[in-house]
Amino acid sequence: MIDWDIVWRDYIGISWSGALGVVASTIVLYLFFALLMHLSGPRLMANPTVGSFAVLAVIGGVTARATLGEAPTMLGALIVLNTLMVMEYLLGTMRKLPHPLPRRRPTVLMIGGRPVSSGLHRVHLSQRNLWDLLRSHGVLDLDDAELVILETRGDLTVVRHGSTIDRSLIAEVEGREAIPEHLLSG
Protein backbone atom coordinates (compact mmCIF):
# COMPACT_ATOMS: atom_id res chain seq x y z
CA MET A 1 0.00 0.00 0.00
CA ILE A 2 1.25 3.50 -0.88
CA ASP A 3 1.66 5.89 2.03
CA TRP A 4 0.65 9.19 0.39
CA ASP A 5 1.83 11.20 3.39
CA ILE A 6 5.40 9.98 2.80
CA VAL A 7 5.13 10.57 -0.95
CA TRP A 8 3.90 14.15 -0.35
CA ARG A 9 6.45 14.92 2.40
CA ASP A 10 9.53 13.36 0.79
CA TYR A 11 9.01 13.82 -2.96
CA ILE A 12 6.32 16.32 -3.86
CA GLY A 13 5.43 18.85 -1.15
CA ILE A 14 7.17 21.63 0.71
CA SER A 15 6.31 23.59 3.85
CA TRP A 16 5.67 27.34 3.79
CA SER A 17 8.92 27.99 5.65
CA GLY A 18 10.76 25.66 3.25
CA ALA A 19 9.27 27.54 0.28
CA LEU A 20 10.40 30.87 1.76
CA GLY A 21 13.90 29.47 2.27
CA VAL A 22 14.01 28.21 -1.33
CA VAL A 23 12.93 31.63 -2.68
CA ALA A 24 15.44 33.51 -0.49
CA SER A 25 18.39 31.25 -1.33
CA THR A 26 17.50 31.30 -5.04
CA ILE A 27 17.43 35.12 -5.09
CA VAL A 28 20.74 35.48 -3.23
CA LEU A 29 22.51 32.87 -5.36
CA TYR A 30 21.06 34.30 -8.60
CA LEU A 31 22.35 37.78 -7.73
CA PHE A 32 25.76 36.37 -6.75
CA PHE A 33 25.99 34.38 -9.98
CA ALA A 34 24.90 37.42 -12.04
CA LEU A 35 27.68 39.47 -10.41
CA LEU A 36 30.18 36.68 -11.00
CA MET A 37 29.25 36.50 -14.69
CA HIS A 38 29.37 40.29 -14.97
CA LEU A 39 32.94 40.26 -13.71
CA SER A 40 34.32 37.19 -15.49
CA GLY A 41 31.66 36.12 -18.00
CA PRO A 42 33.22 37.48 -21.19
CA ARG A 43 36.46 35.62 -20.51
CA LEU A 44 34.67 32.38 -19.60
CA MET A 45 32.47 32.57 -22.70
CA ALA A 46 35.19 33.73 -25.11
CA ASN A 47 37.66 31.02 -24.20
CA PRO A 48 35.85 28.02 -22.74
CA THR A 49 38.38 25.57 -21.37
CA VAL A 50 38.04 22.32 -19.49
CA GLY A 51 38.81 24.28 -16.34
CA SER A 52 36.16 26.95 -16.95
CA PHE A 53 33.62 24.24 -17.82
CA ALA A 54 34.47 22.42 -14.58
CA VAL A 55 34.11 25.64 -12.60
CA LEU A 56 30.69 26.37 -14.15
CA ALA A 57 29.56 22.76 -13.59
CA VAL A 58 30.56 22.89 -9.93
CA ILE A 59 28.88 26.29 -9.51
CA GLY A 60 25.72 24.88 -11.09
CA GLY A 61 25.73 21.80 -8.87
CA VAL A 62 26.41 23.72 -5.67
CA THR A 63 23.80 26.33 -6.57
CA ALA A 64 21.17 23.70 -7.35
CA ARG A 65 21.80 21.91 -4.08
CA ALA A 66 21.82 25.14 -2.07
CA THR A 67 18.60 26.48 -3.59
CA LEU A 68 16.64 23.26 -3.10
CA GLY A 69 17.57 22.87 0.56
CA GLU A 70 18.11 19.74 2.61
CA ALA A 71 15.25 17.74 1.11
CA PRO A 72 14.69 18.55 -2.57
CA THR A 73 11.10 18.06 -3.73
CA MET A 74 9.16 18.64 -6.91
CA LEU A 75 7.38 21.73 -5.57
CA GLY A 76 10.74 23.06 -4.32
CA ALA A 77 12.17 22.65 -7.82
CA LEU A 78 9.15 24.40 -9.35
CA ILE A 79 9.61 27.28 -6.90
CA VAL A 80 13.32 27.56 -7.83
CA LEU A 81 12.56 27.56 -11.56
CA ASN A 82 9.82 30.17 -11.23
CA THR A 83 11.97 32.35 -8.99
CA LEU A 84 14.80 32.18 -11.53
CA MET A 85 12.47 33.19 -14.36
CA VAL A 86 11.11 36.13 -12.32
CA MET A 87 14.64 37.22 -11.40
CA GLU A 88 15.76 37.03 -15.02
CA TYR A 89 12.75 39.09 -16.09
CA LEU A 90 13.38 41.70 -13.36
CA LEU A 91 17.10 41.90 -14.06
CA GLY A 92 16.38 42.20 -17.78
CA THR A 93 14.00 45.07 -17.04
CA MET A 94 16.55 46.69 -14.75
CA ARG A 95 19.23 46.58 -17.46
CA LYS A 96 17.43 49.51 -19.03
CA LEU A 97 17.93 51.59 -15.85
CA PRO A 98 21.17 53.31 -14.76
CA HIS A 99 23.46 50.74 -13.12
CA PRO A 100 25.59 51.11 -9.99
CA LEU A 101 28.14 48.75 -11.58
CA PRO A 102 29.98 49.75 -14.74
CA ARG A 103 28.59 47.87 -17.71
CA ARG A 104 30.79 45.52 -19.66
CA ARG A 105 31.54 46.94 -23.03
CA PRO A 106 32.93 45.38 -26.18
CA THR A 107 36.72 45.69 -26.18
CA VAL A 108 39.29 46.12 -28.95
CA LEU A 109 41.72 43.17 -28.81
CA MET A 110 43.65 43.60 -32.05
CA ILE A 111 44.42 46.34 -34.55
CA GLY A 112 46.32 45.88 -37.81
CA GLY A 113 47.18 42.28 -37.07
CA ARG A 114 48.75 43.15 -33.70
CA PRO A 115 47.27 42.43 -30.26
CA VAL A 116 46.26 45.36 -28.06
CA SER A 117 47.76 44.41 -24.70
CA SER A 118 45.57 46.80 -22.69
CA GLY A 119 42.44 45.23 -24.21
CA LEU A 120 43.67 41.70 -23.55
CA HIS A 121 44.52 42.65 -19.98
CA ARG A 122 41.10 44.29 -19.45
CA VAL A 123 39.23 41.11 -20.41
CA HIS A 124 41.79 38.72 -18.84
CA LEU A 125 42.75 36.97 -22.08
CA SER A 126 46.25 35.89 -23.01
CA GLN A 127 47.68 36.25 -26.50
CA ARG A 128 47.50 32.45 -26.79
CA ASN A 129 43.76 32.58 -26.01
CA LEU A 130 43.35 35.24 -28.69
CA TRP A 131 45.12 33.08 -31.29
CA ASP A 132 42.78 30.17 -30.42
CA LEU A 133 39.75 32.43 -30.87
CA LEU A 134 41.02 33.83 -34.18
CA ARG A 135 41.60 30.36 -35.62
CA SER A 136 38.11 29.30 -34.58
CA HIS A 137 36.75 32.34 -36.43
CA GLY A 138 38.55 31.42 -39.62
CA VAL A 139 41.43 33.89 -39.36
CA LEU A 140 44.39 32.17 -41.01
CA ASP A 141 46.72 35.16 -41.34
CA LEU A 142 47.15 37.77 -38.59
CA ASP A 143 47.57 40.53 -41.17
CA ASP A 144 44.09 39.67 -42.47
CA ALA A 145 42.56 40.71 -39.11
CA GLU A 146 42.56 44.49 -39.32
CA LEU A 147 40.36 44.87 -36.23
CA VAL A 148 39.20 42.35 -33.62
CA ILE A 149 36.62 43.21 -30.97
CA LEU A 150 35.55 40.96 -28.10
CA GLU A 151 31.80 41.39 -27.63
CA THR A 152 30.21 41.40 -24.18
CA ARG A 153 28.89 37.84 -24.57
CA GLY A 154 32.25 36.42 -25.62
CA ASP A 155 31.87 36.47 -29.42
CA LEU A 156 34.44 38.06 -31.71
CA THR A 157 33.86 40.65 -34.39
CA VAL A 158 36.63 40.45 -36.99
CA VAL A 159 37.03 43.25 -39.55
CA ARG A 160 39.15 41.72 -42.29
CA HIS A 161 41.64 43.38 -44.61
CA GLY A 162 39.85 45.58 -47.14
CA SER A 163 36.68 45.96 -45.01
CA THR A 164 35.50 48.80 -42.81
CA ILE A 165 33.12 49.16 -39.90
CA ASP A 166 30.54 51.89 -39.42
CA ARG A 167 31.47 54.42 -36.72
CA SER A 168 28.09 54.05 -35.05
CA LEU A 169 28.77 50.34 -34.48
CA ILE A 170 31.84 51.10 -32.35
CA ALA A 171 30.38 53.97 -30.30
CA GLU A 172 30.41 51.88 -27.10
CA VAL A 173 33.60 49.90 -27.79
CA GLU A 174 36.37 50.16 -25.22
CA GLY A 175 39.59 51.23 -27.00
CA ARG A 176 37.80 52.66 -30.09
CA GLU A 177 40.03 55.77 -30.03
CA ALA A 178 42.96 53.62 -31.23
CA ILE A 179 41.11 52.36 -34.33
CA PRO A 180 42.67 53.89 -37.46
CA GLU A 181 40.47 56.09 -39.66
CA HIS A 182 40.89 53.86 -42.73
CA LEU A 183 38.94 51.10 -40.95
CA LEU A 184 35.95 53.37 -40.24
CA SER A 185 33.04 54.28 -42.48
CA GLY A 186 29.89 56.37 -42.03
From TrEMBL:
It is a multi-pass membrane protein. Its main location: membrane. It is found in: Cell membrane. Keywords: Cell membrane, Membrane, Transmembrane, Transmembrane helix. The chain crosses the membrane at residues 12-37, 49-68, 74-94. InterPro entries: DUF421, UPF0702_alpha/beta_dom_sf. The keyword Cell membrane applies. Residues 105-167 form the YetF C-terminal domain. Belongs to the UPF0702 family. This is Uncharacterized membrane protein YcaP (DUF421 family). The lineage of its organism: Bacteria, Bacillati, Actinomycetota, Actinomycetes, Micrococcales.
